[in-house]
Amino acid sequence: MKDREELLKKLNEAFASCNTDFLTASVTDDVSWQIVGEKTISGKKNFEKSLDRMRLGGPVEIKVSQIIISDEKSVVEGIVEFQVEPGKKKKYAFCDIYVFAENDEQKFKELRTYVAHLKKKK
Predict the structure, then answer these.
(1) Domains of the chain in sequence order
(2) What is the pLDDT of residue 83?
(3) What DSSP character marks residue 72?
(4) For the residues 27-37, what does the mean pLDDT come to?
C-alpha cells in the first residue's frame, strides 16, 4: 500500500510539472481516461497527445488533500491550479479514480477524473 501511495504522489507531481514521459510510462497501452462530463481519451497514443496539449496551459500547482487505496482502485482528491493567461489563475477541486493493471501495479489502465471550478468568494 505504501508503494501505491508513493506512486500516486509521483503521478500527481508529474501532472503538475507536465512530466509527460513519466505519465506515459505509467499507463497501459489500452488506457482509458474519462474526464467526466467532458470527454474520454482512449489508448496510449491519444493519452500522449492529450498530455502534449496540457504542456501549453497545464497545471501550475496540485495540492493533494486525500489518498484512498484499495486493492485495484485508488482515489486522489485535491485542488489544482491552472494558469489561464498571464497573471490569471483558476482553481479546481478534483477527484481522480485510478484503476491499476492486474499484471503491473506500476501502471494504470483507467483514470476517471471529476473536476469542479472553484469560484472566488465575494
Answers:
(1) 1-118 (3.10.450.50)
(2) 75
(3) S
(4) 97
